[in-house]
Amino acid sequence: MLKNLTLIKLGGSVITDKEIPMSLRKNILTRLVGEIARAKQEKPDQLLIVGHGQGSFAHVPASKYQTMAGFINEESLLGMAIVQDSAATLNRLVVHEFLKHNLPAVSFYASNTIVTKKRKKAAFCAEVINEYLRKGLLPVTCGDVLVDRDQGCTIWSTEEILAFLAPYFLEQQIQVNKIIHVTEVAGFLDKTGQIVAEITAQNWTKVSQDLHRTRGFDVTGGMGLKIEESLTLAKKGIESMIISGMLQDNLYWALTNRDCVGTSIR
What we know:
Largest sheet: 8 strands, mixed
Shape: globular
Number of domains: 1
Strand content: 15-25%
Distance between the termini: 25 Å
CATH topology: Carbamate kinase
CATH superfamily: Acetylglutamate kinase-like
Number of strands: 12
CATH class: Alpha Beta
Helix content: 25-40%
């Protein structure tokens, strides 16, 4: 039985400059991957799946072609392909960074394994991701454009993909420890700028009033969607964390169960 699985989401706002199209924050990406590599050395039995947001990469053409809405005009078909290409471009840059740290990272694209119907899962080929984990590989996934039986295509954010995978793994008797969302901010901030240490179904209605608009390019919902997906997972016993990726070693601390700066969703 596979166990001890942690899912990590590297936010698009952290690893790219969301206000400049196709702009990678390479120094930050290198540091974060280095922290994952250090944690993996310390806890070699910990299985990892890494997802990354698209930031200023695929969000830009996705907004231009309104890809979330599907095939809405004569440009939509080519637009879908352009968005997928942009998503894959950033994914290969992230994978390459893991390889430079001697971690056996491989791309895992939802677009090649999931078919949707009205944006909900209609078919899923799980054998690839299962074998990647069994063989000890490190799958790197990302927000992606999927083929949809009703509307032609749609987009699933990295949060949606990880939120889909986590309960699937539970059904397969694979222990999911937690999901760590690495963001540009220190966690969920209230209107005074203070970190909300914990969010639950009981306090979400109140604290959600402090939601701010996502900066830069984002077509998939930003912080609000992140927490909504996390609260759904919390009902299944999976804890999520929203932590700062701008603070050095914060991701390393989270992966090695040390105190870190951020918000827990339970």
